[in-house]
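Friendly challenge for the regulars: who can give me the structure tokens for this chain first? No prize, just bragging rights.
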Amino acid sequence: MSSIKWITYSGILFGAIGMVCGFWMITSPGEERKKNIIKSLPEANPLRMEETRRLTALQLRVLKEAAETDDNITRRYSK
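First reply, four minutes later:
Bragging rights claimed.
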């Protein structure tokens, strides 16, 4: 009797996994849609990408300075 339960539960589990994989394949975008999504990202614009890099560099510089000192550096940048 326990082998029938095991087979039934295994079938249900594999069926559920198969359904999830099927839905994933149906709902995932195709190659053309992926290319359109990438083109519409803000980072696709070279000016926006350069601005993002500059801001990231500034943030990293402030974090590095904060890590190297014991002072409260937030008072310097809040004015």
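The helical segments are 2-27, 31-40, 46-68, 74-77. The first helix runs from residue 2 to 27. Your move, everyone else.
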